């Protein structure tokens, strides 16, 4: 089967031989791929929606991979016991939703050897949450798909000493001098500059103006870091 670019990248971050907890599994495509390709030994698929999990069960029906799949209805990590899985995958949810899920079951989260996360926005909030929970990033990548940018992270237990710019743009993405990150920053810069200009012209949205100015300052700082990384590679 063919996964989307973002899910394919997320799958590549899952260590071989893992017992995977697919949190918010939806239709189960990612877990099926991980089992079919021999990346996962077992997959525990959970979703808060019985309807979504029913679709996943029907998707697996009649396939040999079904014998290695366990389907559980529930909220986040609440369906798991600590140590029952060694890798958790959280993909396709909003960043704030992911942080809520991580904080809700801290003990189970901290029992994981890896967390593979693909958030739909607010990646900076996810990084901050991971740092507070005692995780650092082993790898990080960004992909563009159908005009949208997606960041995928693999977090492992450890100390994360990230500054504000690294939280904003991604410490490993900055270090890699990532080309997709460059495009994303340029796009965000153009969009926010245009919005700030309109607000100033109409003398409205003072708080919004301050927020946009802060974002633009962060983008400029991140772009400078990328220039430094590029010169370092040369």
Write the layout of secondary structure elements.
Layout: H1 5-12, E1 18-23, H2 29-36, E2 40-47, H3 50-60, E3 69-73, E4 87-93, H4 95-104, H5 106-110, E5 114-119, H6 123-132, E6 135-145, E7 148-157, H7 164-169, H8 171-176, H9 179-201, H10 206-233
Parallel strand pairs: 1-2, 1-4, 2-3, 4-5
Antiparallel strand pairs: 5-7, 6-7
Helix pairs in contact: 4-6, 9-10
Sequence of secondary-structure elements: HEHEHEEHHEHEEHHHH
Strand content: 15-25%
Structural class: alpha/beta
Number of helices: 10
Rg on CA atoms, Å? 19 Å
Shape: elongated
Textual characterization of the structure:
- The structure is a single chain.
- The protein is α/β, with parallel strands linked by helices and about 230 residues long.
- The chain has two domains: about 5-160, 3-Layer(aba) Sandwich (Rossmann fold); about 180-234.
- Helix content is about 50%, strand content about 25%.
- It contains ten helices and seven strands.
- It has helices at about 5-10, 30-35, 50-60, 95-105, 105-110, 125-130, 165-170, 170-175, 180-200, 205-234; strands at about 20-25, 40-45, 70-75, 85-95, 115-120, 135-145, 150-155.
- The chain has a seven-stranded mixed sheet with strand order 3-2-1-4-5-7-6, with helices on both faces.
- Strand 6 and strand 7 (about 150-155) form a beta hairpin.
- Helix 4 runs parallel beside helix 6 (about 125-130) and helix 9 (about 180-200) runs antiparallel to helix 10 (about 205-234).
- It is elongated and about 60 Å long.
- The mean pLDDT is about 95.
